[in-house]
Amino acid sequence: MEQKWVIGVDLGGTTVKIAFLTIAGDLIDSWEIPTDNSEEGKNITIDIAKSIEEKLNKWNHSKQEVAGVGMGAPGPFDYETGIIYNTVNLGWPDNFPLKERLEAELGLPVIIDNDANCAALGEMWKGAGAGSKDLVCVTLGTGVGGGVIVNGNIVQGVKGAAGEIGHLTSVVENGAPCNCGKTGCLETIASATGIVRVAKEFLADAKTTGELQTTLNEQGTFTAKDVFDAARNGDKIACDVISYIAQHLGLALANIANILNPEKIVLGGGVSKAGDVLLKPVEEYFKAYSFKGVAQSTKLYVATLGNAAGVIGAAWLAKA
Amino acid sequence: MEQKWVIGVDLGGTTVKIAFLTIAGDLIDSWEIPTDNSEEGKNITIDIAKSIEEKLNKWNHSKQEVAGVGMGAPGPFDYETGIIYNTVNLGWPDNFPLKERLEAELGLPVIIDNDANCAALGEMWKGAGAGSKDLVCVTLGTGVGGGVIVNGNIVQGVKGAAGEIGHLTSVVENGAPCNCGKTGCLETIASATGIVRVAKEFLADAKTTGELQTTLNEQGTFTAKDVFDAARNGDKIACDVISYIAQHLGLALANIANILNPEKIVLGGGVSKAGDVLLKPVEEYFKAYSFKGVAQSTKLYVATLGNAAGVIGAAWLAKA
């Protein structure tokens, strides 16, 4: 009897991740191809289709044995039609019919969701959220992304703008400007770039010095990881920075939980790898700002799938 | 052919509201009976059953023509079993099997949800939320309650604690104590009692006087309505109070919308009747703190069903 596979595609500005999985979520194969942004991105869907077909041949698996293709893409887009309204990194003109094009190239049904949502679905299916149907994933990377899952399904919102966790307003007055046009967004504080920004502000105001100041003086700049390392070594300013970030992040997570009381909140992205130096104070603030019944039942976890979350969650879409 | 009805019951500490509706949601009859809290509340379910049976007889409508009974009750309880864990106003011992008792008395299937959720379902079915499957209701009364609806269903959360909008942490440091045990909850600011509390703080710190100060001096106290009236008459302190409240409420609503991007946020309860003096600044802050795509698509509305929302939403439960 034929074994049905699902295919996940995670479309990024520089590479496209692709994976074959069984319907049960066991990984068969995963690989990457470069994203060809030239000529208004016209080769992107062609390259993806060709690469999938070559791999299927290698595995001696026919298209009839594939249930479908799920794809995580940078939004915003129309969920029904699979048209991407606009994109900065992929070269496509506005209102690019991504779903239609890939279906035409590949001869398989394609379903699209945004990349942060796919990461959440991946963690729900095979990662830290496994076994839970109500969870929120917060990805703390260069930016802050989010995916909200209720009863096993992504919450899209009326215009696909649900899960904008990075744009929760954290600082009400005199907040730092955010790429989205607002000020004081969580992303300006709890992303890797936000942490560096906050730390530079704290250093500029500081009356003492220490490891982080020395790093800045010697290298001219530093990373979020440098902040965590300095705090682990007891640098006072770095500890204050982390306390500030943990308070804002803990508050945002608590308020998400006060609204949804999910079983799990899963923290992913590079910043989530900081470990206890960040996660312990985040958890303390989270509990302090959560309604009692929420603090007792909604738990924080660190994501386990890393970069593979998106492609696995995309494959999940094809299964549904 | 028999016409199926649904029955809604809204259980409060002093009265029980009951209504008959058609499956389509047309109101047939609605009435109230007193809540008998004596003898550990043992008559409550008996009284409800008796009252429903009398009314069915009056309408010459048999129990076979009733699809079921939905009930809004003050939580917290177990959704599966319909057991109320504990209740302060109803006299029942802990872990009271409400669903089982009422089903036994009445011989009809009973489904229970908390009262704030029922109000949200009522507004979705027949009120300001009609036609929308993704909405959040926020009831600004003596306290602040909430109901979150995604894809037409109430979000319960893992322990039934979703929708605790009143306990979103609004003031991070030195907030007022809340009945829930936390400090700085939205309820300490945007409920009718919270508005009075904030206004008294503002008056104590004020260097000027005005209408609200005069009311306080003459009557020894004042209501939230007095604050709105004074602001409409241009009282500077009352205007400052409302600006403060609107900022906190607008921020909370914006962050709800940034997470869920619902089609509608419906404001109910006595405070929502303040009109433009409150709603205009709330809307301004809401837009300022919302992610662009959210501000463009999530709209604020005032509830239209008043006190009937709960009983109508309870009836909706029986229909599902």
UniProtKB/TrEMBL annotation, chains A, B:
GO biological process, one term: glycolytic process
This protein's record includes keyword Kinase: yes
An example molecular function term from Gene Ontology annotations: glucokinase activity
Keyword vocabulary terms for this entry: ATP-binding, Kinase, Nucleotide-binding, Transferase
E.C. numbers: 2.7.1.2
Highest taxon listed in the record's lineage: Bacteria
InterPro entries attached to this UniProt entry: ATPase_NBD, ROK, ROK_cs, ROK_glcA
Pfam families reported in the protein's UniProt record: ROK
GO CC annotations, alphabetized: cytoplasm
Family from the record: Belongs to the ROK (NagC/XylR) family.
Protein name: Glucokinase
Lineage, broadest ranks: Bacteria, Bacillati, Bacillota, Bacilli, Bacillales
